[in-house]
Amino acid sequence: MRENYTPKLVLIIIVLILSVYTAVPSLGFFPEVEDIDRNGIISEIDFRNFHRSKMESDQSFLSVYDENKNGKLENSEWETGYLKEKDSRGLNLDPRFWDRFFYDKTVTLGLDLQGGIDLIYRVESEEPIKDEKDRRGLLRKTIQVLKNRIDILGITEPVVQRYDQDHIRIQLAGRFDEGQVKTIIGQTDLLKFQEVIDSQETALGFGAQARNSAYEIVRQVRQLDKSGKETAAPLWFLLKRAPIVKGDEIDSAFPRFDQFGKPEIGLKFKAAGAETLMKETKRLVGRRVAIVLGGEVYMAPNIKEQFGAECVVEGNFNLDYVRGIVDVLKAGSLPAKLIPVHENRIGATLGQDSVERGFLAGKIGFLLVFVLMFVWYRGSGLVANLSLIFNLLVLLALMVFLGATMTLPGIAGLILTVGMAVDANVIIFERIREELKAGKSSRAAIDVGFNKAFTAILDANITSLLTCFILFKFGSGPIQGFAVTLSLGIIASMFTAIFVVKILLGAYYGRERRQALSI
After folding, report:
1. CA 399, CA 393: separation in Å to the nearest integer?
2. Does one domain contain both 19 and 156?
């Protein structure tokens, strides 16, 4: 009785389509358009900036419009070329045409591949720590708040963990506003309303008042124009240290826009916080209250009448920053003070070099495997090679879907996965050869060969998965990346090297009378 392969072939096709849909954007086929004005929207300005960068590497464009022959396009040169060539070259069009047909996320690269920062903070409690249990509890709560803040800011795959007895280590990969992130990480109370005692053009202008422990000096946030230039020197404020209300008394925070379309932060306080704010602002009518955000004074309005339960924070914000601050305010205040003790920047150039070398090693490994499998096993080797490509797509799709991070050791895990998948096929094909030599038909040899090899392959893969679990449990950072990539690769190879290869060979050789099995 013939086996009906149709349902299994349909399953393979569905998995292939889903894998291609999810994994292809991570293979670098599509252009990346940067949001240069950081307004949260990819617009024509961003398209033009992308095309300008591309045209600066186009010799035919440079030969016509690069008048000073320095290999770069000055603003005037680019504008001239843009106006003349925008229609013929599509310089005003969105270059991401094919992106819309695929998944909108790509695999996340780790700190060692795309660069980033490595920060170590010492945790200082305002209250005395009684024993090690209290210390562990304080660190656990601090780590949780930090993870909430960083995750909400949109930085993917942060590493936040205990380091030494009373330190916390934070590793952040990618491109982001470093100063903004460090401010948000280290600020115990991100938002505070504080009474203004005085304001001066310099911090030295407060005289003896500055030595009063009940006061603190806070600088006004820099005011920038559209070109990014500072419009005026920021003022310095002498504030009453004890805040009127803090961020943890906020019931809800939300982004909103003023009448000119500028983003601002809307706040609604809890009942107790709203009552305190109304009482204190009633007392301070005619005086100033500073709204301190991230350690800087954003507003210091004169109080004309008492505040209600809701208010608005205005400033020179972009939409991404407003959204980030709103979400971080929801994450709560830190239970302890963070003192920075170490900072290390990993350059993106080093990361790119690591990526290129890692993928070059992967390409060479793939090519050698492809050639050897085809030469040694002929037609069956070709099927195994196709399953390796399928395996890579499934692995990348799983990493994207699960939000796993690709690290430099992870690339090694990916290459090792190829070897393990090929090893499974080699065991199977050798078993099939033995059955063919024993006089079995192609279909019978395929069935028996796969059945006999399956137990050995399963045992080896389960052992490898247990090793990966131990590495992930007790390792950190890149080692965990290696464990994740290898474990996902093993799962993918079990599907592609065993199930897919068997179904393809069985479907081809098992229906009608076929020629001898090419193996």
Report:
1. 10
2. no
User: Does some domain include residue 105?
Assistant: no
If asked whether residues 37 and 16 sit together in one domain, one would say no
Q: CA of 442: how far to CAs of 432, 439, 452, 498, in Å?
A: 8, 9, 15, 17
Q: Could you identify the residue written with the tokens 């070109």?
A: 227
CA dihedral for 86, 88, 91, 96, sign (positive or negative)? positive
What string of DSSP letters covers 237-271? Answer: EEEESS-SEEGGGEEEEEEEE-TTS-EEEEEEE-H
> Does residue 518 sit within a domain?
no
Q: How far apart are CA 137 and CA 159, in angstroms?
A: 19
Distance between CA 267 and CA 514 in Å, rounded? 74
pLDDT in tens, 133-157: 888 888 888 888 888 777 766 676 6
Q: Look at residue 170 and give its three-state secondary structure.
A: strand
User: Percentage of the chain with pLDDT > 90?
Assistant: 10
pTM strictly above 0.70: no
DSSP codes, 274-294:
HHHHHHHHHHTTTSBEEEEET
Per residue in 274-312, pLDDT (tens digit) is 888 888 888 888 888 888 876 788 778 787 777 778 877
